[in-house]
Amino acid sequence: MSRARIRLATAAAAAALVIGTLPASAYAVAAPGAGVSARHHQHYQAEPIRQIPLQAAVNFRDLGGYRTWTGGQVRQGLVYRSDALSKLTAADISAVSGLGLTKVVDFRVPMELQYDGADKLPAGLAPTARPVNDLGLYGTLVGAIASGDPVKQEQMLGGGRAEAYMRDIYRNFVTNPENRAQFAQTVREIADGTQGPLLYHCTSGKDRTGWMSYVLLRALAVPESTAEGDYLASNTFRAAYDAQVRAGLKQSGRMQNPDLLIPLQEVRQDYLDAATAQMEADYGSFYGYLTDGLGLDLRTLAKLQNKMVR
Tens digit of pLDDT for each residue in 113-145? Predict the structure, then answer.
């Protein structure tokens, strides 16, 4: 392998660490509620997150248990959200096997799969590739880290550029027709009464997975503030892990200022707001987004409620 190829592979591995594929067995998980904004903290205390503790995935959760504004509750054990599953240990795979999953949807793009690897899953379970465009975020990270140049890294990610990149990615969840089709198909499969427990994930389980979860919860009549709390909770579960990644990049000499990566590692209310503002601009309302944007008919939405809410 050429030196250039080695450097690229090393940078890709480092980028994978930044967005969530480093084995997590050595890292503690922050206590529930940490990292959630004050706006949602009190509400969130009453709606605890149902994390599935694994060694090599820090953001694996059951999306059930939330109360709806109609007086129901989202059923547990039917839908799970997660970060990458490509580094699962044997013990992790055994734990996942106990969930009875019948489908795993992978939102990662081909470049992520190329460098991070395919999902490791229980026997008989194969992932369904359903890539959601990330506007080249993974490639941008590879380029930034591969440069090893603090000036170039600052030019690429500093001065609010990383935050602007993230807002553009969230708007693209709404405006890109291929992305909308991937999210819509996932909702249809969840609504299907013949479909067993389903899991969807991306690399870090926070952006593509976070938007999918926000949309699903709101479609189930979970209050908007609760859906936002579920989205923001990725900061709770990823905080210690992401800090270790930044420390490792600095220690290795690949980044003098790894804090440039924080806007890419975190979820933020203004990222979610960028998507919801785009949704309202394009479709007028959340309901308009479901019906016109995602193409979900009333029958599908009713099936979703009947299956997912008790």
Answer: 998 999 999 999 999 999 999 998 888 888 888
pLDDT for the residue numbered 19: 61
Which residue pairs from 8-11 have beta carbons closer than 8 angstroms and sit at least 24 positions apart in sequence?
8/142, 8/146, 9/115, 10/146, 11/142, 11/143, 11/145, 11/146, 11/254
DSSP-assigned states of every residue in 110-155: HHHHHHH-PPP--TT--EEE-----TTHHHHHHHHHHH--HHHHHH
One-letter identity of residue 269: Q
**100 within 8 A of 62, measured Cβ to Cβ:** no
Angstrom distance (rounded) from CA 35 to CA 140: 26
- β-partners of residue 67 are 73
**C-alpha span between 132 and 34 (Å, rounded):** 29
- Please give the model's pTM, rounded to 2 decimal places: 0.88
DSSP classification of residue 223: -
The model's pLDDT over 45-56, given as tens digits with 9 standing for 90+, comes to 356 789 999 999
The alpha carbon of residue 282 and the mean position of all alpha carbons in its chain are separated, in whole angstroms, by 23
CA distance 190 to 220: 11
CA–CA separation, 82 vs 130, rounded Å?
15
Q: Which amino acid is at 10?
A: T
Q: Is-contact 32 48, C-beta < 8 A?
A: yes
| Residue (of 202, 200, 217, 190) closest to 286 by Cα position | 217
Using an 8 Å Cβ cutoff, are 218 and 231 in contact? no
Confidence band of 227 (pLDDT split at 50, 70, 90): very high
User: Running DSSP on this structure, what letter comes out for residue 29?
Assistant: P
**8 A C-beta contact, residue 204 and residue 234:** yes
230's tokens: 């579920």
Q: Label residue 185 exposed, middle or buried (CB < 10 Å: 0-12, 13-18, 19+).
A: middle
